[in-house]
């Protein structure tokens, strides 16, 4: 009450003084009338309410409409004050306008008033003016260019706080034009001895470099003494500046690598220093500075042996001495782990980092568990065995209530699957598939299919696993799961009776899972005679009659749960049984009924089957005989499109060979010698090409190990048996990854290609190479294509990649499997071609890989 009374008294006194000043001036008659109007208006015009009162009034609004009405009324008063050029309350009005802007209401009409406040000599006006400029202006508006001269004057002001306001504003919203004009002033302040100004100038320099990268060298001399500063604020902002410069320029990165010992010394002092109340956060000395230094060390140590060696000891100290009871310590440990995994650190240090992530998985904080799972997923390819030690903890995360943790745990679990743990991991993942939410079932089912196909210990286990998925989540599986399972069953000749019996039982229990019903219908149509005869040896045979089997299939045709595709499978199965069962008349009646079906597809099938019975009955047994063993040539999935490079040594001509077709000269795109040689090596492709040209090209050139030239023509009628034929009944890989060390095949322009190795089972002449493509740049690499070729004494098979986009900043990787047949145990040599699009520009590069580890080819 006393304050408000004093305020009212001062206002009254100010008005009285103004009135007396006006009245003391001699005026003409006309001027007297104007002055009288001015005095009356001035007396009647109330002072604008303060910001605090406006906030209190707005908070009393009960509805949104009432709040809008208050805002509109106050905005009208502010506009009137602006039109009258009221300098007394301009600062107060702009402050209220900024509050309205924070609430989401338009405040653009106050932009010029902010510039007037900036030009004021009062610090309070400048403070509100610069704050308004940072909130209401950006570089897209030309008005901000009017500030350039004011900011330049304030950067040279005698008061450090005014200089600080100008630095903050320039570092927040300065455009490239402003940064070019004022970079010299910022660089001058970066060299000052005032720590308050140096830390603000360092952050402003970061913004200048981001806007105008070519000005980076201007700040290089000023960075020499930044790390010797004792003030933690200056150290922090200096590390941020150095990080920005290293990330944007390889030359700067090389230049600043000599600062690694100094950074290590600063970090060690932070760890070993005692309690400092000014910098202590939960018992840890300045964790923000520690995190920034660790991040800079990660950039400096990447792909550099000397720098990595210099920081190994301090990283081990940070990892072992940091307290983990508080979230602050966990943040430092996480940054330490990222640094260890990104530099060329020692193997023991990498194991320590993964063990830290394993401890994170036991933390009660869900965010820490999610971070640990994400980090382990990135490192599982390079440190597979170390991550395997935490497999049980990772599997336990599948039971977490948090959806994001479940998804990360599922992805990591599939990444951990190998030939040794396939049974146990599939048991856990199938249990997860039973109980998980519908949003996980599709991805989990696809993962189980791929893992079972790659590591299945036996055909029976493979079939049982796929059937378990179909019975549990049949409605969520991919479209290609049905033909893939049919192919698997067809190729497993010894399992036909067992499979058809299992599928028949599953069909009796549930017909709602359409993929399961489709596979069951197909198998009953193919192997219905084995089902009726009861010849199953793997389990106790069931007694089924022909009529019971036909009743089940007819029930599928009539069921409301059956889709048109399922009905087509069922009708075809019934037709096939006409050559396996004796109930031909009943089958004829069923087929004839659907000759008038409203489903066009079903009607067409029935009409054609009726024609078989009537006109071509003598051909029916041959047309409906069992399908032969199918070779897997193509798939709708992303991992099954196969290309082979099966060059063979030239041999003497043989009249029994199939006719050869010479390549026409006008199809240069089909087979193009990339290296300028005359030998064009043919590529045998196991899938039908989508277009006439652009197939895998000759990457070998002078790599050929044979003396003679390549064959001038390619076989067009037949092709040699592929190197992996006959392996389908055996586990595909042995888990001996640890025996063959991984290698880096390519590292250029931010793209890194790593090879990991496995041996195919049972043929030791086949090396299975998995490529892992990662991208450390800030932009994704799209349309990524990896091609490879080997000398003629080898055979090469390329599976399709997991994706054609390599994510930026190591956020993921693209994997692709290469199978190399090396019957003569010669040293492996390979030439690769990489094509991709980066930042809108196409990139193409060739590389030769000759440093394969001896274990991969001996």
Automatic annotation (TrEMBL):
Record keywords: Cytoplasmic vesicle, Golgi apparatus, Membrane, Protein transport, Transport
One Pfam family in the UniProt entry: Alpha_adaptinC2
GO cellular component, one term: Golgi apparatus
Compartments in which it is found: Cytoplasmic vesicle membrane; Endomembrane system; Golgi apparatus
Gene Ontology BP, a term: intracellular protein transport
Domain GAE: 738-853
Membrane topology: Peripheral membrane protein
Domain of life: Eukaryota
Alphabetical list of InterPro entries matching this protein: Adaptor_Complx_Large_Subunit (IPR050840), AP1_complex_gsu (IPR017107), ARM-like (IPR011989), ARM-type_fold (IPR016024), Clathrin/coatomer_adapt-like_N (IPR002553), Clathrin_a/b/g-adaptin_app_Ig (IPR008152), Clathrin_app_Ig-like_sf (IPR013041), GAE_dom (IPR008153)
Family recorded in the similarity comment: Belongs to the adaptor complexes large subunit family.
Protein name per the record: AP-1 complex subunit gamma
